C-alpha cells in the first residue's frame, strides 16, 4: 500500500498482454483452445497445439507482437503443428 501523497511506479509486463480481439478475428482458435482446456481439466500442456494456433492467429492479425515460439515457451520442433489462420 502506498503512502498518501506518493506515487507508485508500475511497469507493464513484457509478455502476456495484447489487445482484445474485438472483431473476433481469432474467435475460432480461442474457442478451440478454451474447449481443450475444459476437456483436459485446465492442463495447458495437453492443449499446446491449440494455444499455438491461437497465438499464431493473434500475431498474424497484429493483436500481439510477433515472437518466436521459443521465447513464448514452445519447442521449435512443434512449430510445424500450428494451424495457419488464413
Automatic annotation (TrEMBL):
One of its GO terms (cellular component) is mitochondrial intermembrane space. Residues 26-58 form the CHCH domain. Keywords: Cytoplasm, Disulfide bond, Mitochondrion. It holds the Pfam family CHCH. Signal peptide: none annotated. It is found in: Cytoplasm. GO terms for biological process: mitochondrial respiratory chain complex IV assembly. Belongs to the COX19 family. This is Cytochrome c oxidase assembly protein COX19. It comes from Crassostrea ariakensis.
Amino acid at each position: 500500500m502506498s503512502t498518501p501523497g506518493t506515487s507508485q511506479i508500475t511497469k507493464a509486463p513484457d509478455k502476456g498482454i495484447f489487445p482484445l480481439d474485438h472483431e473476433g478475428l481469432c474467435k475460432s482458435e480461442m474457442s478451440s483452445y478454451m474447449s481443450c482446456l475444459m476437456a483436459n481439466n485446465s492442463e495447458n500442456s495437453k492443449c499446446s497445439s491449440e494455444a499455438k494456433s491461437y497465438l499464431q492467429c493473434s500475431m498474424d492479425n497484429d493483436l500481439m507482437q510477433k515472437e518466436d515460439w521459443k521465447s513464448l515457451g514452445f519447442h521449435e520442433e512443434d512449430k510445424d503443428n500450428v494451424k495457419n489462420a488464413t
